[in-house]
Amino acid sequence: MKTLIVGGTKGIGLATAKMLAGERELHIISRSAAEEQVPGAQYHQLDVITDELPDIEDLAQMVYCPGSINLKPIGSLKEEDFRTDWEQSVLGAVRVVKKYLRTIKKQENAAMVFFSTVAVGQGMPFHASVAAAKGAVEGLSKSLAAELAPDVRVNCIAPSMTDTPLAARLLRNEKARESIASRNPLKRILEAEELGSMATYLLSHAARGITGQVIGVDAGLSSLKL
Ligand SMILES: NC(=O)c1ccc[n+]([C@@H]2O[C@H](COP(=O)([O-])OP(=O)(O)OC[C@H]3O[C@@H](n4cnc5c(N)ncnc54)[C@H](OP(=O)(O)O)[C@@H]3O)[C@@H](O)[C@H]2O)c1
User: Fold this and answer.
1) Taking a C-beta distance cutoff of 8 angstroms, is the pair 13, 26 a contact?
2) Measured distance between the N- and C-terminal CA atoms of the chain, rounded to whole angstroms
3) For a pocket test of ligand 1, which of 162, 166, 218 has the largest count of ligand atoms closer than 8 A to its C-beta?
4) Measured on CA atoms in the order 35, 37, 38, 44, is the torsion positive or negative?
5) Distance between CA 210 and CA 222 in Å, rounded?
6) Residue 122 near residue 222 (C-beta atoms within 8 A)
7) Which residues line ligand 1 (CB under 6 A)?
8) Mutate to test the pocket of ligand 1, among 43, 69, 164, 184 (most ligand atoms within 8 A of CB)
9) How far is 56 from 99, CA to CA, in rounded Å?
10) Mean pLDDT split into 10-residue runs, the chain, 226 residues
């Protein structure tokens, strides 16, 4: 079984890669070199939006992690912000799907996992660009789930604030962390491993009945009001 993790060098992608290491052949794409390498993984250093993607024979599964937390009031968001966020979250994912779909479709337990954000289902201030791009990711993943059934399962995970390099600026000190944690029912900032566990589960044989879902791993933020 071969699995590609786009963005498997940091944060949630790295956590997912560590969980899958050893049990399958892993391919990992990122723009910068991995600071922490997962044993046995094959690394491809490239920009998924602009560069040619490598051929990977018999690829069965993909996880697509690139995204941003570009939070600004709408007056400060430039058209360029929307374009960049859309390219990173949506167009990059589309490029990867189009490159590998023919191969993925032929494999056993073929599956794709994408990442959205809790801010698509729950309106949040300053999220216009990120939520617009990730809303498109949810639409993309549901549409693909329908189009590719029964051959490929396609699911999307919508996290709340998770402690990764992407969120480091927002989680810059204890006061900021406490303030962010206090806004969700479980009063927590998630760890990358919690999202990695969900991604790993969605790829597994145990999740063979799950497709077309947007699954909130969000400390209760999307559905509870306390
Ligand atoms: N962390 C959170 O609080 C949070 C909350 C809600 C949703 N999410 C979503 O969850 C997903 C994962 O988040 P994360 O926090 O783990 O992100 P992260 O720490 O920024 O990791 C992203 C990974 O993607 C790679 N990457 C980014 N752009 C790329 C490109 N153009 N080409 C190739 N590789 C690229 C990065 O490596 P390089 O930089 O070296 O390319 C890195 O390995 C994202 O889609 C994010 O929007 C995260």
Assistant:
1) no
2) 44
3) 166
4) positive
5) 20
6) yes
7) 6-7, 9-13, 29-32, 47-49, 65-67, 88, 92, 115, 117, 159, 161-162, 164-167
8) 164
9) 10
10) 98 98 95 97 98 98 98 98 98 98 98 98 97 98 98 98 98 97 97 98 98 98 94
Helical (H) or strand (E) element with 136: helix 128-148
What are residue 170's DSSP bridge partners?
A: none
- Report helix angle 92-105 to 128-148, nearest 10: 20
Cα separation values, 160 from 62, 115, 118, Å: 22, 11, 5
Query: What are the angstrom distances between the C-alpha of 117 and each of 27, 51, 54, 89?
Result: 25, 26, 28, 11
Measured between alpha carbons, how far is 86 from 52 in angstroms, rounded to an integer? 19
Residue with tokens 């509870």: 224
d(CA 128, CA 145): 26
Q: Which domains does the chain have, with CATH numbers?
A: 2-162+192-217 (3.40.50.720)
Task: Count CA atoms closer than 13 A to 68's CA, side-chain side.
Answer: 22
pTM, two decimal places = 0.98
